[in-house]
Amino acid sequence: MTSSPERKLGSLRGQLLRWLLIPLAILVALDAISVYQNALEAADQAYDRSLLASTRALAERVTIVNGKVAADVPYVALDSFETDTLGRLYYKVTGLDGEMVAGFDDLPPLPRGVKRSEAYPALVYFYPATYHGEAVRIAALYQPVYDDTMRGIALIQVGESQEARRDLSRKILVETLSRQALLVAAAALLAWIAVSIVLRPLMQLKADVEVREPTDLSDFDPSHVHKEVRPLVAAMNGYMGRLDRLITGQRRFIADASHQLRTPLTVLKTQAELALRENDPRALRDIVEGMARTTDATVHLANRLLTLARAGHGSMEAQQEDCALGDLLRHVGLELAQQAVAKDIDLSFEGEANPSVLGNGLLLHEMVANLVDNAIRYTPAGGQVTLRAHDDPPRIEVEDSGPGVPPDERERVFAPFYRTSTAHSANAEGTGLGLTIVRDIAALHQARVTLRGRPQGSGLLAEVSFSTSRHGA
Q: Where do the TM regions start and end (predicted)?
């Protein structure tokens, strides 16, 4: 199953601006809607007040004449109704019994369920309607009329076209959106300037990284950036410190390896030159045998160097598995049994413990093989090498009856190519890399290597102790 490609984060400045401006634009839009609605309500109140004033002015002209409701609307007043600057006005006066008195008889009637306006101390109702295809707003006012002979309530209706209200609404909307747009634009500009200023130290850090020489692994100064970015700078400094140690170690390893390989290769070249000049078959055979021994020593050194390089590069990360330490000791013992028999060494395995640890089986095998190989090489003929595995905590022991390592040199022998004087006398062909390999592989598995003197007599007890385990059946 293929994994989806990682999402690109993009520009930090762009993300900050988006997170600042998008919520701001939403809030401004909501505010604009609220302001627009409030403005419309205020406009409606103003227009309704004007419409009520026109209705009251008409109501004052409604009287009772000869027992009937009459509306004295002169031509001038009628003309003012029809040409009012607020919009076209339409009116209708209905008598006490619902009879048409004056005005436009087809003006839409007051619908049922319309609530009386609480904003004015009058029996007035406001409602929207459509008159001859035009949207109008109508004020319906119940006006008491009476004389000495009769009394009752007449209905006066005045309708106003919605054009003026719509024009005012559009004007309010345009002005509101214009102000809010200017506000967002100003906020965007200020946010851009602010983000640029805030990111300036980070951009300077970026520039410092770009111009730094590849060989310069010194720390960056975290005080030049913001507090939130200092952990990142500290992590960068820590990484460069680890990289510096790795590069230094590699340089030292290459230098040491070159020095160590140069000697046997020089000897081998000298032996080859002697063989080319030698005519005596017996002497020639002795030279060739010496070349074979030198070649074996060089191959052994090269193999140790490769193992050390592989351990130093963290090969532990791949191919982890459950490794039974007891079984591992037995397999290595069988592999090196012929070498022990050739020196008349008693190679044995004690105990029945078989703890299991999680690790790289190939590297753990190499670690154990180096311990056992060292023990056999430095143990004199007729000596003993004993292998043990223990539980709780899981650990292995390789004990030999060789010359051992003096207590003051037990830490130094882990350094590459370091050999004690007793090691030189016991095995002149040693490389000084065996315990270095053991230490590096153990470190990859969070294990600790300890060297102690043999409890009985001379010799060395090498112990590798693991911190965690998974016991096998």
A: 16-36, 181-203
